[in-house]
Structures are given as structure tokens and as C-alpha cells.
Amino acid sequence: MEVNPHREFQELLERRSIVICVGSGGVGKTTTSAILALQAALAGQKVLVLTIDPARRLANSLGIDAIGSQRQQVPLERFAELRLSPRGELWAMMLDMKESFDRLVERDAPDEESMRAILDNPFYQYFSTSLAGSQEYAASERIYEFAQEEYFDLIVLDTPPTTHALDFLEAPRRLADAVSSRALQWMYRPTILAGKPGRGILSVGTSYVMRTLGKFTGGELLQDLTTFLKAFSVLFEGFEARARAVQTLLTGDTGFVVVTAPDQLSVDEALYFHEQLDQETLHVDGFVVNRVHPRWVMDAEKIDPGELRQALEELSPATSAESLSQRLLMNALDFERRSNQDARSIGTMKESLPETMPIVEVPYFNQDIHSLGGLDQARREIFSGFT
Amino acid sequence: MLFSGKGGVGKTVMSSSFALSCARRGEKTLLMQLNVKDKAASLFGTEEIDTEIREVRENLYAVNVSPKAAMKEYALMVLKIKLIYRAVFENRVVSSFLKVIPGLNELVMLGKAYYHVGEEDEEGQPVWDKVVVDAPATGHGIFLLKIPSVITGLIGSGLMFEEARRIVELLQDPKRTALALVTLAEEMPVNETLMLSDVVNKEIGLHVACVIANGLYPRLFTDEEIQWMDELGPSVADPVGGLVEAARFRRTRGAMQERYLQKLRDDGSWPVVEMPFLFFEELETAVLEELASLLERTLKSTEARSVG
What is the pTM of this model? Predict the structure, then answer.
């Protein structure tokens, strides 16, 4: 049966409670997230779009000054200009990683003292936004909170650009490993490192291992880091259970949308994302290909330059038809090559994906999308026939 | 030579073209990708480039650095004995601990770049004339470049400290290190470039050698012609109708690019290298060759202009 990708996209918004847009940098993830959210809001859902980028123009286009770290509702009057009347609600929020993480510390620290110990630690200050997946962890925690709240019918998440799609999902696990009692215990009680007897070089002794490692890192670093991880581990009482819940949420009711540009390198990367998500049996619900060159002219090389010149002369006797016709043809050929290259890489993409995978294309517009009108224009492409 | 910029602006293609142009001039060049899905192989038409340095062209070598392999190389260099390396670094607990030392991955990757910059052969001659690093996009790029100074700020001894201190010196020395920021002449990439330039300058002390404005549409039509086309309206029959639409598209995008190019020139203190968009049908090695020649010429003329 022929798949209608536009219908599939419409249905995924109804089916899912969380949609996560993944893809490499600069392919239009933030814009695509906003469009998906807009469509769902128009259809009557209460939607929250969580973005990572401080995309000011996008905020302005939604009629809010800036997307802040507090959720804000997009005013409905703005839609009237486009003769749209959303039956649902559209909310937007920027995920400030540092702030999300601070919040986590404040919420979970058992007392004021341990909270300060963490917030004032130089390691925390430098690395709270980059410590082994802490960003992604903070983001998934936040989504979990919203999902628990049950106010929103749909949450659309715009993820940070990364070449590793799974960073987001592995974050809770990796962070758990990082502060796991085993690694920490070793820092307090180095004897466990010696391992079981008879394991050759391991029995040389922990102090040697420690000394060698210390030579690399410097003694202070090991000390400071231990203090930090120890303070930090307090936060993760019950952490494993929480991580499991987040994991369940992301593997259950969550759909992934891979966003890409139509050039070869981007498509290769998009397929790589799909492969990784697929291996983890996560649901990839569809692909959005942005900035696909339109085909204004079919077979420009078949156009007869003489006839073209004549047609131009008839339209405007004043122009220098000879030179203009040449340049018009040259330009059309330029864009035809681009459009061929887009078609080719999208073709490769389709061959590598299951036949049922919905793929929608959004044309390359003559200006970048930074108004509600622009968002709506792209929305009509993705949900063509369902707007 | 380091390349960074917003995602999707053509960093990899630009750094690869630059490396190719150096190699063609006869400089022995090493192109480093930092722990990414390898893209250089498809550009040079070679087998996948992994953690082993391999020759992709005459004078041109490429590698995809992984933190794990770089750490091993480095540790072996210091420890000399493989058995000790394995006892210490491949110990399960140690390796899970190493994973969480913040910034360690970034440091060892930069450390590898540092090592190759100073690498000498048996006769004491430099092995590499040029080391080209395809650095990550803005956010992670800043983090990577900041790591050495963050580490020297946090700790004061040990091999890691020494290593970080030497890398900071290398990064801050404009004679040895230059950063090229690649951008498109569009709103978001230009704003991000200005921000990135500011941060690397003030917070890392790194010299931005130039900004490469990539993908500029060469201008084909005069304003009068475009005005005439605008007035034609949508009712014109094909093929003229379609040709005119395509021409107006190029002009609208082109005009926008000119505005953002001007903003780059006005708001930045670095030379802006203008790279035209190539309307290729397939990104193959021939395109890279052409880009390498173009880049070399444009860099020269930009340099002449900024000196003059």
C-alpha cells in the first residue's frame, strides 16, 4: 500500500506524547520542531515546544520577545493574521542547560550544605553543562517532569546538534556509571582495584595504579574530583529508578523525527542517526528533508536559445535579449544541477530506509523562515492535504 | 590551522579543501577530524578514515581521532611499557573513572594535534608542514578550545597540567595557530560567527585569522533586469516563466547574502574570505579540487587586500 507521508506525519502527532527532533547542526531542527508543534496546536492539542537554541527570530515570529527558560504561551492573536484559529494551545520554552542542572541540584540535594558543596565546587561550575552527558540528562529530566504533570498532550523537543543521536538516551545511564558506587568506592577504598588474586599484573597493587594515574592527572585533580563526585552522588539516591522511568518514557510513547538537509553529507549523517536509533529499537517516525531545491524548469538544456531570445524580445523589446537569455539558461542549469543532486541523495535515502518510512520534503524558500507566515508556509508542505 | 563555525555551513568541505590546497603546494599536511562520523573519506574517495593516519593524496594524510586511541598513544609514549598501560588504563574501574574526568577526551584530542605540530623525524626535521583540524561546531568547539585553559586554572601540577599548559601556549601563539571561522551569509550563522569570534578572542586568546563566507551565489542579473522580471507577473508561459522564477530566486537569496556579508565586514575585525557557491551535481573529488584552487586564490587576494 502506498504510504502518504503527510498523513503519517499528521497521525504521529496524534499518536505520540513526545516527539524528539534529531539531526546534525544547521539542518533546521529548531524550525521543524516549531512547525510540528504548531500543527498539533492548530488541531486542538496542548503543545509545548522545548528548544535548545536561543533562536530570537523564531521567538519573535511566535509573538514572544524571547523564548526564555520559563514556558510561555504563544498569543492567539498572532494566528488571526494568518486566518488560523488554533483549537489547542502552543507553548514555547528554552532549555537552559545550566539552569536546568542547578534546579536539579537544588531539588534533590538533601540539605543546604550539600547543595552548596556542589554548586560552589569549581568542577561543577566549569562542567555542569558538559560533564558526561549532563546536558542531555537535564533535558530528559525536564521532559519527564512535564510528562508527569500531564498538562500537555504533546511535547516536541529540539535536541542539541550532535553526531551521536543516542547521547540523549545514554545520558542517564552514563551519568549513573559516573557516580556509581564502584568507581567512587575505589577512590575511597583503593583496595578493590587490586582485583582477584592471580590476575597477573593487576595484583601489582593499587597504589601503583594510583600513582601512575596521579602522574597524569596531578594529585589535586584526583582529590578534587573525588570530593566533587562524592558530593554529587548524594543527588542520585533513587537515581537508577528515575533513570529507568525516563528510559521507559523515551522508548515507549516517544517518536523520533530525523531532520536533514538534502546534500550528500547531511543525508549520510541522517542515515547514520537512523541506524543508531533503530539499533536501540527506538521509534523513528519519519524524516523531514529541508531546503530541497525547487525545479523551476524541466530540462533546461533542451530549451532552444533562439526561441527563448525571440520570446524575450516579444515580452520586452528594450532588454538585451541575447545576453539575458544566456544568463537565464545558465542560472536554470545551475539550479537544475542542485535539484538533481537533491533528488539523487533523497533517492539514496529512500533506498536505505524501509518503504513505509514517511519522508516529507520542504522546499528551499527564497528567504529564511523567521515569521509565523514562514512557519505556516513550511507547515503546509509537511502536512500537505491535512492543513 | 583550526576550522570551526555553526553546524551545516561547510566546515568539513572547507577544511578538506584547505588541506588539499596546502598539499598541492608541496606542504606535507595532516587533516584531523575529531571523533566524528568520517566524512573526509567520501570527499577524497578513499576507504574510511579511522584512528590510523593514512595517506589520501600525495603530501596529504588524514586521521579521525578517537579520544580512546589518542589516550592510548599518549599514555604509551609516557609509560613506554605496554603491560603497564594495560594494567592501569584498561582496568575496568580506571577506565570508567577516566570517562568521567570532565574534558579529558577533548584534552587528549588537542594533545594529539599538539604532538603532531611539534613532531620531528630522526634528523630533527618537522614531520608536518601543516596540521589542519576540522574542529566541532560552535558550542562543542568552544568547549574543546577552552579545556586546556580551564585545566590549567583548576590544577597546578601533573602531566595533564603540563600538557594543558603547552597546548594553551600553542593556541595563543598567532605564529603557530590560526582559526578560520566558516559561515554562510545568513542571519543565524552570521550572528553565531560574531559571537564565536568574540568568545575565542576574549576567553581563549585565540587569533581568528579569517572568516570564510561560504556558498555565495555569484551575481548573474542586474537590478534593472530583476525589476523587469518582477513586473512580468506570474502569467508568463514556460519556459520563460520558470526561467524568470529561478532568476528571481537567485537574486532574492543573493541580495540577502550581500546584506549579511556586509554585516560581517562591518561588525568584525578579521578579513572576510568570500567563497562562491559551486552548483555541482555531485560532491566528488573534482569539486574539492576546484574548491581548493578557489580557496587558495581567494585567500591570497584577501590577504593582499588586508595587507594593502
Answer: 0.89
Q: Which residue of B has its CA nearest to A184?
A: B97
Domains of chain A: total: 3
DSSP A274-337: HHHHHHTT-EEEEEEEEEEPP--SS-GGGS-HHHHHHHHHHH-TTS-HHHHHHHHHHHHHHHHH
ipTM: 0.89
A275 and A187 in a common domain: no
Buried b (16+ CB within 10 A) or exposed e, B116-135: bbeeeeeeeeeebebbbbbb
* Contact state of B102 with A126 under an 8 Å Cβ cutoff: yes
- On whether both A128 and A258 belong to a single domain, the answer is yes
Q: Give the model confidence (pLDDT) of A234-279 as tens digits.
A: 776 656 667 778 778 888 889 999 999 999 889 999 999 999 888 8
Residue range of the domain that includes A185: 181-233
Query: Which of B97, B144, B287 to probe by mutation at the A interface, max A CB count within 10 Å?
Result: B97
Q: Which residue has the cell 589520501?
A: B56
CATH number of B2-219+272-307: 3.40.50.300
Do residue A256 and residue A189 come from a single domain? Answer: no
Nearest to B3 by CA among B32, B28, B23: B32
Suggest the residue from B15, B37, B42 to mutate for an interface test with chain A (most A CBs closer than 10 A): B37
